[in-house]
UniProtKB/TrEMBL annotation:
Residue stretches in coiled coil: none
Matching InterPro entries: Cupredoxin, ET_Amicyanin, PEFG-CTERM
KW Magnesium (keyword) present: no
Lineage of producing organism: Archaea, Nitrososphaerota, Nitrososphaeria, Nitrosopumilales, Nitrosopumilaceae
Identification of the protein by name: Blue (type 1) copper domain-containing protein
Organism: Nitrosopumilus piranensis
Keyword tags: Membrane, Transmembrane, Transmembrane helix
Record flagged with keyword Transmembrane helix: yes
Transmembrane stretches, start-end: 237-256
Amino acid sequence: MVFTLMIFLLFPIYDAYSESQYDINIPSGSSDKNAPFHWSSEKDGDATGFIEIIVGDTIFWKNADSVSHTITSGNPQTGPDGIFDSTIEPGKFFQRTFSEIGEFEYYCTIHPWRTGMVSVVSGYRTLSNVGMDAGDGTTFFDVEYKFNRLINNVSVVEESKSIVFELKGNTFSDDNSLMLLLPSGLINGINSVTIDGVSSETFSQEFENDMIILEINDIPPNSKIIVVDGTTIVPEFGEIVLVILTISVFSLVVLSRKQNIGSMLRYN
């Protein structure tokens, strides 16, 4: 009983019902106004104190500095707004689960130059213009995703009929599943997924309204690259270019025939 109690005291208990959990560290020396950075987000490496999360996610602010800091909602200009406020002693942390959509400014009342913001959004994030780097660049799509990390870059590899997703930052969330909503016009016939060059067997896909719902589970928290392979990829030529190409080919055929007829008439 005593041993169990000691474990609860020594190790913080995380909320098992939150969707994802993210750490924002307060680095050593951040009480100095001229410090190179005052925050360090383990989600994406951001050092400005800004983080984007989804409704139901939890933030842990952890004080690795040698002095106390506060995490106070509001800003230095207008002061605290009363939404949340906590003093964090060295080696301690403050956690908050965000259940509403919105932008929540915060700062340290002891060191007011230390400011940040939590942006809370609902549902999936959007990757725009995926496929623009393929073919003539006129055929592209939006890809929505839900993940406890950010996708920093997306590229299409026509030769291998693949989409490459570059991940940013690390996370210590318990949920390491990536959900992708992929238009069938972008990729189809998904047959393999690799994570940092290692083939994954923990993915599944469903089809709904010309959309592929791809779920990839058990993604290592420090992964960098996810590659999704299909049997078809975004068209090499866009519709406009196909029309122009068709007209050009037709014109060449007509011109060639005219030249042949002209040559025959001259010789005759």
